[in-house]
Structures are given as structure tokens and as C-alpha cells.
Amino acid sequence: MKRVFARRFDHPELLPLWLLTPAAIVMSVILIWPIAQGILLGFFNTRILNYNAGRYIGLANYEVLLADPFFWNSLKVTVYYGIASMSCTYALGLSFALLLNRSLPLRGIIRTIFILPWAVPEVVAVLIFIWMLDAQYGVINYFFVEAGFLDAPAAWLAQADLAMPALVLITSWHQFPLALLILLAGLQTIPREEYEAAMVDGAGAFSRFIHVTLPGLRSVNVILILILILNSFRRVTMIYAMTGGGPARATETLSILTYNTAFTYQKIGYAAAIGTVLLLILLVFSLVYFFTIIHVKRDA
Predict the structure, then answer these.
(1) To 10 degrees, the CA torsion angle through 47, 51, 57, 63?
(2) What predicted TM-score, i.e. pTM, was given to this entire model?
């Protein structure tokens, strides 16, 4: 036995693999095995209450899924929510990053204040905004009515055309500190000499932003956008606590559709098929993110 271990450790390059083996076994048990079980469930017609009595139906769940208007509606809602929340989050993060990149008094305290929304749990943030958006007592309705933007208080979470903008607002507020930190780190890697050279050439503030700042943030932008899109596709807690996918499925993303199908309608096999499709979509974005990271490190 000693000789076997001695021969194995004659190759130091294999030592990291041996050290990672216990973690890989644990991850296989608690992560890979449940995912495999979920994919397998997509081939069965089963419910939670009679899980063991499930019947193998092959690809029937996927055939129903492709013809299901609720699935395509959820896919459309997910894409809209992802693009809208990503755009608003990026705009807020970039705006405050440009502000905090300047020499300001008490800059450290100001940065801490801007990061606070990221520390607030999603459920707490939703409860706060539900109160603020209340049709009768909400401060947001009061402000809009007093400012003349609205003639009467709006039922933000009860109207299909207002629920999604409200959800995007909360999402952007909660996650813009992440964009702020990443973009601020990217701004601080841009050499000051490039701005000075642009000023010598007569470039104004907007021209410097277009020709110096944005090109300097190119790699950071790609990574940040992919992270925000991945977050929007997998987000459940905030959407479910705020609207539950309603009203009239206006905020029912793929993750919420999967949850509702499994635990509200008790169709665990069909929900597993939806979850598998969502998993494949996330896998594509994850691979793009992975290869983007490799490309960025190679160019660094």
C-alpha cells in the first residue's frame, strides 16, 4: 500500500487532482445528482402526491411544452425582464460609478451608502417596495400624484402593464451596487494618460466618454452583462414574493412557471421538463461567460 501511494505522489502535477477529489465527490452528491434526477423526471408523467406512481412517457412533456402558450409567454417575459433589468441596472451602476470615480469628500462613506441595497435581503426589499407602491398609502403614488405625473393613484402590482415596470424598478435598485462595484473597478484600470491625451486633442467630456471610457470598459461590460442576464433568468424569490407571476401571467418568468407548475398545479414531471429547458438556456450563457473570462485573462 505504501508503494502505491509513493508511486502516485511521484507525480506532483497530480496532487491538485487528489486534493480536489473529496470536494468533487461532495458536489456530485449534492449538485449533479439532483440535476440528473430533475432531467430524468422530465420523461415521466408524475405528480408530487403520487411521485412513485409516475409513468414513463418519453418526450411527451417536451411536445406539450413546445405547444404550450404559457411556456412561450414565460420565455418572452423572461427575455423582456432580463433585458430591461439589465439595461436599467447597468445605467444606474455606470452613472454612480462615474460619480464615485471622482475625487469627492467622504467618498468612502458615500460608496458604503450606495452598496447598502445589495445587503438588503430580497424578501425585505420586496416588502418595502410593496408598501411604497400601495395604491392607497404608497409614497410613490403620493409623489407622482402631487408632481402631476398621475391623475390618481395607480395599482402598480394589480395591473398587467404596470407590474413588470415595478418589478424592473425593484430589481435594478437591489442589484445596481453589483454593477457599481464592477464598473468602478473597471474605471480605475483606465490609465489617466488616455484622458489627458484626449483633452490635449480637444476632446470634450462626451467625446472622452465615447472614445476612452467605453472602450476601456469593453471586457468589464461583457462580463457584467452576462452576470446580470444569468441573475434575471434564475431569479425566483423576488418575483414570487412580489407578484407570484401575476397579474395575468405578466411577470411569470420561466423560473416562476417552473415553480408554479410543480407546487401549485402539482405537475412535477412537466415542471421538470420546463426546468430542463431553463437549465439548457443557463448553460449556454454560462459557457459564454466562461469562455469570455478566459479570453479576457488571455488579453490581460
Answers:
(1) 30
(2) 0.84
